[in-house]
Amino acid sequence: MNTKPLIDYFNKILPLGDEEKAFVDEVFKERRVKRRQFILEEGEICKLNTFVVEGCFRMYFVDEKGKEHNIQFAVEDWWIGDIGSFHSEEPSKLYIEAIENSVILQISKQDQLDLFINYPKFNQIFRVFTENALVTYQRRVLQNISSTAEERYLDFVKRHPYFFNRISNVQIASFLGVTPEFLSTIRKKIAKS
Question: For the Cyclic nucleotide-binding domain, which residue ranges apply (predicted)?
């Protein structure tokens, strides 16, 4: 198992010692996921926190009319999981699906708690990661209530250029809260200007 990408990720926030690295090797489990395979489905309890080593995922909700609403994408060096279900141990309302063949590292809730107790440095690391995620979600909520669809699209392009050859326009449209046709109109308008 190769935990080097995860250890590199942690080291960018706070350098790990040899004992901490060994514990990461012990508690994180590698998993290979095929394109279109789910690592979480609605109704399941999210029992694992997931770090993406390679590949691409989407997390989405399906409304009562059967329409999918993408709420997060994750690529290399990103985390993905239903944090509410993970902590409350209640059934998830979300799906997490691989968009590409992927390699992930996963940790159980108990192992993550042991990580925090045995190696307090990880409390700091995960706090930074959680704060960054909260900032991202707040920005998204503010954009959704105060920006036009075109402004949201331009911001998405600026912040996430690496998604464009990896996720479909339909998925981008869902994430932005517009129809694929409306997204196509926005893209044509931007291309002309």
Answer: 31-116
- Tokens matching residue 131: 């704060």
Q: Which residues of 35-67 are buried (b: 16+ CB within 10 A; e: fewer)?
A: eeeebbeeebebebbbbbbebbbbbbeeeeeee
**pLDDT tens-digit profile of 15-44?**
999 999 999 999 999 999 999 999 999 999
Rg (CA), the chain: 18
pTM of the model: 0.91
Q: Is the separation of the CB atoms in 76 and 5 below 8 Å?
A: yes
Rounded Cα gap, residues 76 and 5, in angstroms: 9
Q: Please report which residue ranges of the chain form alpha helices under DSSP H.
A: 4-13, 18-27, 83-88, 109-118, 121-146, 149-159, 169-176, 180-192
CATH architecture assigned to 4-121: Sandwich (2.60)
Length of the chain: 193
Where in the chain are the domains?
4-121
φ/ψ region of 29 (left if φ > 0, alpha if ψ in -120 to 50, else beta) reads: beta
